[in-house]
Amino acid sequence: MTLTETGTNRPTPTLVSPAMAVEANRARVLQALYDIGPLSRADLARLTGATRATIGAIVLPLIERGLLVEREPAPVAAGGGKPARPLYFSPTSWPIGAVHLRPGRIDTALVSAGGNVLATAHEQFPARTRDAGSVVDAVVRALEAVLPQERDDLVGVGIAVGGMVDTDAGTIVAINLAPGLAGLPLGPLVSERIGLPVFLDLHPRAQALGDRWFGQGRGVGSFASIYTGEAIGVGMVLDGAIHRGPKGSGGEIGHTTVHAGGQQCRCGRHGCWETIATHRWLRSEAGRLGLPAARTMTTGPLARLAAKGHPGAAELFEKYAYNLALGIANLQQILAPGLFILHGDAVFGGEAFRSAIERNVRAALPPHPGSEPRIAFSELQDRATLLGGAGLVLSHSLQLAV
């Protein structure tokens, strides 16, 4: 909307060009395929409200470009008629580079537009290194190991970073566990080296995008994707779009205060959620209780100790679930995403841990006629973030909802 030239505050509608209308319609068709799965032209016409002719004009160039393929005809209904041929993404269509950078490790993948992981590679680096240039070199090496030599069909590269980022500039702002990377313009540097567009975002937001298009978040309007383990991060999908904040400043949920005057966090503040719901806290408490292998304790071993009735293990198991639930309940109170998809270490706690978190979240919330919050463990394992990295590129290239 724009203001009129008369100086009044009455808005006038901005006209949409025919080219913009075509792009918008194409985005709606592709988003429907990502949300629902294979659909026939008739299905797409019904879902989008467009005519069959319009749908045909949209999908034909996408088939010719190798993005979409026609699958085998669906079974004919009892009433007869011509069998429909569902459309979906080609298994090898539009290869995209994806990177997951976290302290000490770089994972890369070549991913198709339909979410098939075609190749993977990884590199390691000293997390405390001050040589940021060597980390850029490692990212490029790991990418070169998965990207094809012929790159005319490559769409770009999406990088997910386990730390605070400036999405507009493609820069790492800070990583508490890898302080030498602060201020590194990783996106522009990698783009210059490999000759492709590069899009950079926060790890949990990319993870949420992986859930949005390829996991339990498919077709779900709002949900939260939460990473657990050495740190805590969240990617929020609200009304179908990723919430970022200015320059990507949102998502640092681990550094919201849950205990005023509590322990000092690695970020320098006190009482952050990360001080009571990450491996650092878990291992400290395991040591205090005298549990075996306390210095390397994670949720899986703790769950096994609790199941065996080891003294103190069940108490810690329940307390850890409560601490994770505390921050999740706060998110539900403020934004009410309803569905919380947990990734990382929490998944290895099994169903007993999932149900304990869900029970504690619900107990922390006042009754409301809206649906109760649900806790789910990711089914994408450790590939959600790489899939989301590819999703970053597709979102920009195809102008889909992010």
SS class? alpha/beta
| Rg measurement, Å | 23 Å
What is the subunit arrangement here?
single chain
* Percentage beta strand: 15-25%
CATH C-level class of the largest domain is Alpha Beta
How many distinct folded domains?
Answer: 3
Summed over residues and divided by their number, the pLDDT gives a mean of 89
Q: Could you give the distance between the termini?
A: 21 Å
CATH homologous superfamily annotation of the largest domain: ATPase, nucleotide binding domain
Strand order of the largest sheet: 7-6-5-8-11
Helix tally equals: 11
Known CATH architecture of the largest domain: 2-Layer Sandwich
**In terms of per-residue confidence, which ranges show pLDDT below 50 for 5 or more consecutive residues?**
1-8
Largest sheet: 5 strands, mixed
Do you know the CATH topology of the largest domain? Nucleotidyltransferase, domain 5
What's the count of strands?
A: 16
What general form does the structure show?
globular
State the share of residues found in helices, binned by percent. 25-40%
SSE pattern, N- to C-terminal:
EEHHHEEEEEHEEEHEHEEEHHHEHEH
Family: Belongs to the ROK (NagC/XylR) family.
Protein name: ROK family protein
InterPro entries: ATPase_NBD, ROK, WH-like_DNA-bd_sf, WH_DNA-bd_sf
